[in-house]
Design brief:
Largest sheet: 8 strands, mixed
Helix content: 25-40%
Strand content: 25-35%
Structural class: alpha/beta
InterPro entries: MeTrfase_TrmA_CS, NA-bd_OB-fold, SAM-dependent_MTases_sf, TRAM_dom, U5_MeTrfase_fam
Number of domains: 3
Protein name: TRAM domain-containing protein
Radius of gyration: 23 Å
Order of helices and strands: EEEEEHHEHEEHEEEEHEHEHEHHEHEHEE
CATH class of the largest domain: Alpha Beta
Low-confidence stretches: 1-8
CATH superfamily of the largest domain: Vaccinia Virus protein VP39
Bound molecules: S-adenosylmethionine
Distance between the termini: 48 Å
Pfam families: TRAM (PF01938), tRNA_U5-meth_tr (PF05958)
CATH architecture of the largest domain: 3-Layer(aba) Sandwich
Mean pLDDT: 94
Shape: globular
Number of helices: 11
Keywords: Methyltransferase, S-adenosyl-L-methionine, Transferase
Family: Belongs to the class I-like SAM-binding methyltransferase superfamily. RNA M5U methyltransferase family.
Length: 443
């Protein structure tokens, strides 16, 4: 079939067609990969290794189409009943609830698929081939690359979300999640990924005319709350409402509507990972607590606090964050650290200012360590170029998007940084998301 010419293709695919597919791999974004007449088809709700019948949901592009499974003809040993009945493959694809696109896959396999996505992104966009040390097997290392959050294997990876956003159907006013791949609201009877506290207050099935979004937040050390975003209103609900969170036994103030990791244990997992990465740099004599250390995209200061736990209370660090409310919280959360400064600024603008600073300041930055935790789009070419020019001794990069991380890895490596550590954490079970932590050292 490989040599078949384009002219010999059967009729072009059209939305609504149903075709049989051999599913061969996993792609970024929670979809599997198959081929049909030489064209790539990204298939939702499949598992690599399966044979499925799938319905075409998008066919505009010449190079690829999208489809969703309607029937599993030969199932994977890793297929499970979906954790969310309303997202199950037995439903019409247009009526499946979205946000749990790996919910039909055994947890361990979800993690090995995420590891494949990370390794593939690093190879294709980062120019980094993950390799096994002598005597270790790469497949085994990859299977363990994405680490579970504590307790998730015992709980089946459900009940973890302390933050959920629901939407309101503009026609009926009914509250629910969006459907997979669309902005249609799907009525559901429960939120299996959400914590018991979130489920308790979720207004599922209620009518809320005039409301656009319903954010449910269950803080570790405060009562759960519901933040309503009204239709046509621009200000973010909960921007002025401060709640208390706990990271193990450390308290943090956070805006109810501001950024905080959604998995109950994710802040502790990332705090510990960053603290340990910094501790290793300290042990290797590569960390200078008195240098110009930075926590970029710093939110409420979680990772600056992690840096301080490894480096000691004498740490000098500046957090840079664009949301003023989060900066206020960071200032409060880091108030025990004499050398901490919390700034409201866009990272690119702040780095541009630092690049204009006097030589002694630039020298302190060169001896420093930068922790960065950008949004999904990553730091991007502009910020990585600025970082390369500032040239800090170490960069500890926390990433929620593996492809963005891989692209930024390429830029940093080309600027003379060596990737010396890579870990990944499954803090979004039953979705395709995961978090990575990469350590770079100036060569
Ligand atoms: C993934 S969160 C990380 C927050 C924090 N490190 C934590 O772990 O809680 C990204 C943060 O970057 C902020 N942000 C997004 N774009 C930014 C920019 N261009 N400059 C500064 N901050 C930005 C967001 O407001 C958000 O608080």
């Amino acid at each position: 079939m490989e040599h078949m010419s384009a002219a010999a293709h059967s009729a072009p695919l059209a939305v609504g067609d149903t075709i049989e597919l051999e599913v061969t791999g996993i792609a970024h974004g929670g979809v599997s990969v198959a081929r049909h007449d030489g064209r790539v088809v990204f298939v939702a709700d499949a598992i690599p290794g399966e044979r499925v019948r799938a319905r075409i949901t998008e066919a505009r592009k010449k190079s690829f189409a999208r489809a969703a499974v309607v029937e599993v003809l030969q199932d994977s040993p890793d297929r499970r009943a979906h954790v969310w009945a309303e997202a199950d493959v037995s439903r019409d694809p247009d009526h499946r609830a979205g946000g749990a696109e790996f919910g039909h896959i055994a947890l361990e396999r979800q993690r090995s698929l995420k590891a494949e996505v990370l390794a593939d992104a690093m190879r294709r966009f980062g120019g980094v081939e993950l390799a096994a040390e002598d005597g270790d097997e790469l497949a085994g290392l990859l299977a363990e690359l994405v680490e579970p959050a504590p307790g998730d294997d015992a709980s089946g990876g459900t009940g973890y979300r302390t933050r959920v956003r629901l939407h309101v159907d503009p026609e009926t006013g009914t509250v629910g999640p969006y459907a997979a791949r669309s902005r249609r609201v799907i009525p559901v009877s429960s939120l299996p990924l959400a914590s018991a506290e979130v489920n308790m207050i979720a207004p599922l099935g209620d009518a809320m005319p005039g409301v656009a979004t319903v954010d449910l937040v269950a803080p570790a050390a405060d009562d759960p709350r519901m933040l309503l975003g009204l239709v046509g209103e621009k200000t973010r609900a909960g921007a002025g409402d401060t709640i208390r969170e706990l990271v193990e036994d450390r308290g943090f103030l956070v805006r109810a509507g501001g950024f905080w990791q959604v998995h109950r244990d994710a802040p502790a997992v990332l705090f510990t990972a960053v603290r340990d990465a910094i501790a290793e740099l300290v042990d290797d004599d590569r960390f200078d607590p008195a240098a110009g250390n930075l926590d970029l995209y710093g939110g409420a200061g979680l990772l600056a606090a992690a840096m301080a736990e490894a480096a000691g209370p004498g740490l000098k660090v500046t957090t840079v964050e664009s949301e003023a409310g989060a900066t206020d919280d960071a200032a409060e959360n880091l108030s025990g650290l004499v050398g901490a400064l919390a700034l409201t600024a866009r990272v690119d603008r702040h780095l541009a200012e630092l690049l204009r600073a006097a030589q002694p300041v630039r020298d302190r930055l060169r001896r420093g360590t930068v922790v960065l935790d950008p949004p999904r789009s990553g730091a991007g070419g502009g910020v990585t170029a600025q970082l390369a020019e500032l040239s800090p001794a170490n960069i500890v990069y926390v990433a929620c998007d593996p492809v963005a991380l891989a692209r930024d890895t390429k830029s940093l490596r080309e600027a003379g940084y060596e990737l010396t550590g890579l870990r990944a954490f499954d803090i979004f079970p039953h979705t395709h998301h995961f978090e990575s932590l990469a350590v770079f050292q100036r060569a």
